Amino acid sequence: MTCYDRRDLGLLLLRLGTGGVLAAHGAQKLFGWFGGHGIEGTGQFMESVGYRPGKASATAAGLAEWGGGTLLALGLATPAAGAAAAGGMAGAAAVHTPNGFFNQEGGYEYAATLALAATGLAVTGPGRLSLDHALGHVVDRGWMVPAALGATAAMTAVVVGMRNKRLAEAEKEEQAEQFGEQDALFGE
To answer: Does the predicted model carry a pTM greater than 0.90?
Structure first.
């Protein structure tokens, strides 16, 4: 008979809390639950903050959060689940970074906290009170941790980099228009 220790109980609580919050956050995007806007509304928002195409971006973010969060809560495929959720939250943090750190000011504090918790679970593992443990860790192998986190980091860097490039180009166009209007105003 296996005796569960404080670590197993702590990991269960952390998985349920973090996974539950992430799953609910993703369900807002995917299904419009909990006051969310669903794929259409979230897609429009994603477009407005530079993630294009918006509907595909909303779907990817929603799946990373809902799927990753659900799997984390269950303790199943923990390296992939934690990496996916962390990647989704890194994309969200990029949107909030101009507002500083604290969530009170619209900053990235909340997204960063969820990303860090998800990453920590991916690295630490789910504990013995999990489906991964019950299934003999077939989708929770040690080599999967760096593979999942590395692949997610690379994909997230590309997606956020493309977003940042689009935003920089839009800002340059806006500045050029403003200078053009000033030149016309002053007859230059």
So the answer is: no
